[in-house]
Amino acid sequence: MKATVITIGDEILIGQIIDTNSAWLGEQLSLLGIKVHQIVSISDTVEAIKLTIAQQMLTSDIIILTGGLGPTKDDITKKALAEHFDSDMVFDDKTYGRIKKYFDSRGIPMLEAHKEQCYMPSKAEILDNDLGTAPGMLFSIEGKMVLSMPGVPYEMKWIFQNSFLPLYKKRLPSEKFIYHRTIKTVGRGETTIAENISDILEQLPTHMSIAYLPSIGSVRLRLSSISDQDTSQEVDTYVSTIKKKLGNIVYGMDSDKLEASVLDLYRKKSMTLATAESCTGGLVAHRLTSVPGSSQVYQGSIVSYSYGLKEKLLIVSHDTLIKEGAVSENTVVEMLNGLLESTSVDVGVAISGIAGPGGGTPDKPVGTIWMAWGRKGNIKTKLLNLSKNRKLNIEYTSVAALNALRLFAIEHC
Amino acid sequence: MKATVITIGDEILIGQIIDTNSAWLGEQLSLLGIKVHQIVSISDTVEAIKLTIAQQMLTSDIIILTGGLGPTKDDITKKALAEHFDSDMVFDDKTYGRIKKYFDSRGIPMLEAHKEQCYMPSKAEILDNDLGTAPGMLFSIEGKMVLSMPGVPYEMKWIFQNSFLPLYKKRLPSEKFIYHRTIKTVGRGETTIAENISDILEQLPTHMSIAYLPSIGSVRLRLSSISDQDTSQEVDTYVSTIKKKLGNIVYGMDSDKLEASVLDLYRKKSMTLATAESCTGGLVAHRLTSVPGSSQVYQGSIVSYSYGLKEKLLIVSHDTLIKEGAVSENTVVEMLNGLLESTSVDVGVAISGIAGPGGGTPDKPVGTIWMAWGRKGNIKTKLLNLSKNRKLNIEYTSVAALNALRLFAIEHC
Fold first, then answer.
1. CB distance B36–A23 less than 8 Å?
2. What global pTM score does this model have?
3. B177-186 tens-digit pLDDT
4. Domain at A258-412: CATH architecture
């Protein structure tokens, strides 16, 4: 079973938005054992859509389109599909009722443009959309499925999971065994990891492969197997062997997140956390609080971006700031002590650095970042020498801070 | 001049990473007046790469590939290109020297896998990469250019801007006039905006088009023109007319960011800002501090995720928290007053809500968010009733908070 994901919109081609829909759909289709062999982004013209559907119908069993369905003038996917499949347009009462109810509940009057949306291709099954006005459409032609959904990510996801999946599962059972596991590591580079496990990888059978997926401060290792048989146990055995070899640079598997693994470690020990951030400006806090249920462990952050707030809220001495600067070992140690004092948490991390592009000096260039972490009586510090790139520095430092908290929980709590 | 961007890697197709390279390249090519007519993501196999290059060579003048160049075993793009263009592999001394220097400066020994990287197709021009080990490659064949770069975004960007662009500009002058302007709005939906400016849009000449690009809490309007003549002035006139009609929902143009526009407004008034965040968990702080130079205006945030920190750091009364709850109008007003008191900034915003998925009650369901903002003696409050989706609630609230600060600066400062 092969699939193509087509995302529609000039805004993708000219780089004004990043296409996140295709990654999400790629993952969902993988989980169904369907191989996505291409993702294609095309222009929002009827011609481009028709041509691409015709091409992809030659090789794919399932084609999923997102984008170009909506009440405004750039709504053209529906027109292209109706033309390609030679389908009449009919007024769909159910869609009308659903959209009307959606607007009534929000006290918004229904506009002429919204009524236009209720004309649908007669050859399509109309798929409910509870989060927006444009419904999905499913064409089942010549044993193939063509699914069209609006481009707004949360609407697309809702339609896929609630309207499409139940239909799909009824109609098409899977056939091939595709199995992926991803080992998540932090704190070492791709090449070092590859050398470390090269003896294990030499023994990999031919139906299995490995890929290295580096991102800022971390590397994911994906083991994949495609086979006529269920090879999940075999893959899991390799995963265990690799994890053992890599040791505590491994923080989790598959969709595990670094921030969640940090919170889990402290939750198990019934300990609380807080952060004091300067150059990372709340990113560590944002990452920790993006995890549902984080409030059990994580108490909060003092983002002391200015000298004044470092003194007022974190009790950093004026003397230290003047003599050694806001980016210094003593400042982060005082920030951490102030944080532990004012929040009464068990463990914390304090960060101060020069993210750039401005603010660098000859002896403290952009990319100079100090971190302190730990608990009362056991404080660690580290100096990071990073890049000239502000965004990269902020992101890398947030990963380093989370990893410091993670290793502290394992080694010192 | 037509271009195709090809991103390579099973990790893209199965959704383990989001392809951000193609958006960035799409924008760069647009700025050069080159029309990207397709973005294609394919599997990291020699066959898929060769087939896709052959297909795209039929219609595109410029083909840009990213991914699959690197020291680990999934490095296959170079092999596919050498095979497709029937090119020998030769040891490239310059690449060897560059990689050796890169490692020496970091005190890391050069591994066998890194030496393998120095064999390059003899038909390619080798493009320097100052930020990593894998260089870029440029094939100039039959009047077309095929550029291959590693998939790590910052390396790819560096090679494109520093090694490729100077070569490109020397060889191929542009011919068509492509002009885009984007009006950025916040606080109104796509359909409402479309109705508001429908009379203006009816007069658009045929070489101009408009697209609505909605994202959480905001909508961008992109006006595009493709013509044999320079129509930039004509587009700019339409932009002015639309901006005037839309009023103060417009916060900027093109690559302007909402957070930067907030900081600019307060910078011009020499006023300072701080934030008190609960459910947004530092995201407002992170967004504001992601802007270079934000420290002139933005002093910091108190992320009081727990009841305890709301009382300790923001002086919210225990009574209010117990009687009315952490998510209540009085709590956010007290948070704001505490923030203004403890940080001495001019203007602030305080946020407390139930982001979900847990924590909802019958009278305060998930998605209930209170905000207070303003200065001493002039405090505004607002209740948001949002969705069940944690990520969406956090993102939307951060936009609403930034917009509240923006409008407060315009109307009350």
1. no
2. 0.77
3. 778 899 999 9
4. Alpha-Beta Complex (3.90)
